[in-house]
Amino acid sequence: MSAALDKLAVWRDGRKVQQEQLQAAEDFVFTWSGTVDPDSYQSGAELSCGATNRLANLFRAFYFWGAANWLQKEHEHGSNCNSAEPHPEIIEENE
User: Fold this and answer.
1) Could you give the C-alpha distances from 94 to 55, 63, 64, 66, 91, in angstroms and in order?
2) 3-state secondary structure the chain
3) pTM value?
């Protein structure tokens, strides 16, 4: 019985960590999605291909399609895009 309770405690601790990670990601996305400026190529232009892809995927996971698309467009038009990684296809919100 003790072993089962220990496993349950470990599982609960793991779930708590996952919830904290998800909350942190959600907070980041909600805070930063509004900072991607379609009239400025500053943010995306300074990121590497890998960083742009990961950040755009994070925005997409929380349904911030516009922020993800603008970030990717900024990056592709910026000086830092060397096509080190292929970029995901831009998907518009209403598709």
Assistant:
1) 21, 11, 12, 10, 9
2) CHHHHHHHHHHHHHHHHHHHHHHHHHHHHHHHHHHCCCCCCHHHHHCCHHHHHHHHHHHHHCCCHHHHHHHHHHHHHCCCCCCCCCCCCCCCCCC
3) 0.65
Region of residue 78 (left: phi > 0; alpha: psi -120 to 50; beta: else)? beta
pLDDT surpassing 60 at residue 44:
yes
Judged against a pLDDT cut of 60, whether residue 59 lies above it is answered with: yes
Name the packing angle between helices 2-32 and 49-61 (round to 10°): 110
Q: What percent of the chain has pLDDT over 90?
A: 0
Output the CA–CA distances (angstroms, integers) from residue 9 to 3, 15, 18, in the order listed. Answer: 10, 10, 14
- Axis crossing angle, helix 49-61 with helix 65-77, rounded to the nearest 10: 170
